[in-house]
Amino acid sequence: MVALQRNLWVALVSIIGILGAFSCTVDGVPRRILLDTDVDTDDFFALLYLLKLNRSEFELEAVTINTNAWTDAGHAVNQIYDILYMMDRDDIPVGVGGEGGILENGTILPNVGGYLPMIEQGLSTAGYCRYRQAIPIGLGGRLDIDSNFGIRKAFLPQGNRKYSPLQQPTAQQVLINKISAGPISVFLIGAHTNFAIFLMSNPHLKKNIEHIYVMGGGVRSKNPTGCCPSNSTSTCQPQQCGDPGNLFTDYTSNPYAEFNVFGDPFAAYKVIHSGIPVTLVPLDATNTIPISQEFFDTFEQSQGTYEAQYCFQSLKMARDTWFDDQFYTSYFMWDSFTSGVAVSIMKYGHNNNGENEFAVMEYMNITVVTSNQPYGISDGLNPFFNGLKVPKFHLKKGGVHSGHVQTGLRDPFCIVKNSKGKCKDGYTEETTGPESVRVLVATRAKPNRDGKSPLDREFFRSFLDVLNNPLQTGRFNFTTQFPYYKQVLYKPDLRTKKLGKPVIFDMDMSAGDFIALFYLLKVPMEVIDLKAILVSPTGWANAATIDIIYDMLHMMGRDDIPVGLGKVFALNQSDAIFSAVGDCKYVKAIPHGSGGLLDSDTLYGLARTLPRSPRRYTAENSKKFGAPRDTDHPELRQPLALEIWDSVVSSLKPRSKITILTNGPLTNLANIILANATASHFIQDVYIVGGHINRSISDRGNVFTILSNRYAELNMFLDPLAAKKVFDSDINVTLIPLGVQRRISLFSKVLKGLDKTERTPEAQFVHRLLSRLGRLKKNNHRYYHMDIFLGEVLGAVILAGDHSSLKPTFSIKPIKVFAEGVESKDGYTYIENAGKSVKLLENVDPRAFYDLFSQQLGNEKQSAVIGSFDDQKRMWSTPSNRTKNSS
């Protein structure tokens, strides 16, 4: 009976689709759509909604990813690939990033990646977070969006498409290819950087763009959140209540902007003023379609497809981790609602009044504010004009772009004592005169035509119907993708082993750190007892990259090793008012694109070849640890670095102490010292990979993106205050500086050594990674710094001890670290009589290092228990998937 009902439903939907197709195609050709997204939670709701539409009516042609807002490029692109794989749409191209730049005169080079707002874009993908710093980095922000609260890896199947260095199509390539092919509508549901750059670089292709649909801005909107209840006492202070915007982290400076437009106000201005018809779905409308409890409850009972399940699980986790008890009045259907309004308008044939099923429309004359009055008076803070004889992009002196541009959180210019902030950057403001553009604007969501339905908005019904439509549905999720999937944890039996010295590895997840981790896992347990790993997301990778550590430990049979996540800001960089956001004064030195965060977050395209661990980051949380409520599985909560430290200390045997190896910024170690005055009593030695003792004027450091800083090394520069705190402490420090690292950084030598070893899975993986790094360094200038990562392995080799063949030489020097807030000097490590006495590694035998490194990785003892994701797929695809050493 169920099968019969399903078949009747499929037939009915097919008939309706065929009849409907006649009303919204042009000469029998479906409407073409390109989606530009920042891959926030509601963004993939919109994506899945579009993928479910009748393809004879609407054809999603491509997805481009906005990389300067709520997600990071490497995590976002792989999530999109996995969603498309689930939906059997590997035919849809995905564009992300690019290495082009913008010259000082405004010339836009090919393939600008959109990692930075246009006002900050130079010739590199490294740069300042002027607007993006308003977005939280950790919990409730980019960490949770990058990982989709931990649901992404647990649910989405993994196909063959993935990011790969220099092979990934760029956003501009995909835009040009698809828009060149013919008439198309563009949906913008993130910041507008990608599309503005396209329009400015390809004016001849504007004719192919039929319409632009934008989710963003607030025109006449009044924020319904942050208001005092009607029965509240006089002590209640309204927050962003009634503001036009929704910058909940920065409304005291800018109460006018909405996040998508604020992400790049100048780009949004160029889009709105492009001359192409624009429909705007701003906060005015989305504020009238909050996720109601009735919708949530109905959705919970309406999960008939994999895509509906993925969306509901994501929405539920967003609710369960919401920061207060106002979720149902604070979380809105932003991007999915915009997609519904857009396709409904397209279905009705773009009539003049924007008639559609879901929203009330009105024409308004608006502009996008990009700077603040007074105009034309230089304060040295507007890069479009500062020091330029001819303003960038030939902008008008004294024009609307020439005023004060908000510099970041708590910009003093924007703060008005005892009043709302006055900055309007990113405000979609109603106006008249030459700056005004006539735009079709959604003003409110339409009520459900069925007054008896618990769903009070018409779009609620459509959204659930479309997601649960059995046509064009997802094929499987991660577990049902494999007929014999079994979740297994691999843990060694340590009961009969005499374990070596307790060690904690503190890493920032650079490529070199992962190679060093492999080495530590290969050192006999009788020599090193690796107790824990601490992760510092203040360096080469974003916090969600912690999942690669879990996968690597799973591969090596060490699911017993705990992993603690450190604070997401360097010392004194988090905001004093709202600690979830903060400055990027130092981490801005890391490129966002090639050779930087994009590659670190994907381990240069190789992370997805590792076996998939059941352990992963998850947003699951507990009131015990300060969360507003328990989620469904609080036992899966991601532990923090300080919690792991306390746990390891409490488990030490009497008179035992911990040896620490740090391969990144010293943020975690400094926070341990700051949190516990007796921390040094439990530390035997600290091996620090980093710092640079320059021997001559030409002996430069490696902060290669900050040209004014000649002598600092990146690990010290990325958190100089933390480094100073450690070097001012009474901890025993052995420093492995940049100079000696450079002596063992020849790819050809280490690869030659690995060629001679036994081909263990870990040796093969490291060989493949180092081969890729060496090839990239040789062939593309964006990767010329790759030898930095090979040198980082030296700390693990030195810590392991018993290396007479290495012939290491040490000296004792008084060392200090400069940390005074001066960009050109911070992180500089120098010798001074008043400094801390540090054991300084001066030299090693390079040939012995290469031999020792390769021999250890090739040793068959303590080798991988599962070699790769391909091995897992084979195991899960055959009936006999019993494995040894499992628990």
Key descriptive features of the protein:
887 residues, alpha/beta, nine-stranded mixed beta sheet, 19 strands, disordered N terminus, disordered C terminus
Number of helices: 29
Mean pLDDT: 93
Strand segment count: 19
Unreliable spans: 1-23, 882-887
Structure class: alpha/beta
What is the C-alpha radius of gyration, as a whole number of Å?
A: 28 Å
User: Share of helix among residues?
Assistant: 25-40%
Question: Biggest β-sheet, characterized?
Answer: 10 strands, mixed
The portion of residues forming beta strands comes to 5-15%
| 3D shape | globular
- The CA-CA distance between the termini, in Å, is 42 Å
Molecular structure report:
- By secondary structure, this protein is of the alpha/beta class.
- Strands 1, 2, 3, 4, 5, 6, 7, 8, 9 and 10 form a ten-stranded mixed beta sheet that branches. A nine-stranded mixed beta sheet has the order 13-12-11-14-15-16-19-17-18, with helices on both faces.
- Helix content is 30%, strand content 13%.
- The chain has 29 helices and 19 strands.
- The model is unreliable at 1-23 and 882-887 (pLDDT under 50).
Describe the secondary-structure layout.
Layout: H1 2-21, E1 25-26, E2 29-37, H2 41-51, E3 58-65, H3 73-86, E4 94-96, H4 142-146, H5 151-155, H6 171-180, E5 184-189, H7 193-201, E6 209-215, H8 259-262, H9 265-272, E7 278-281, H10 283-286, H11 293-300, H12 306-320, H13 327-330, H14 335-347, E8 359-368, E9 428-430, E10 437-445, H15 458-467, E11 501-507, H16 511-522, E12 528-535, H17 546-555, E13 563-565, H18 597-601, H19 641-651, E14 658-662, H20 667-675, E15 683-689, H21 714-717, H22 720-727, E16 733-736, H23 738-741, H24 747-755, H25 761-779, H26 787-791, H27 794-800, E17 809-817, E18 829-831, E19 836-843, H28 846-858, H29 869-876
Parallel strand pairs: 2-3, 2-5, 3-4, 5-6, 6-7, 7-10, 11-12, 11-14, 12-13, 14-15, 15-16, 16-19
Antiparallel strand pairs: 1-2, 8-9, 8-10, 17-18, 17-19
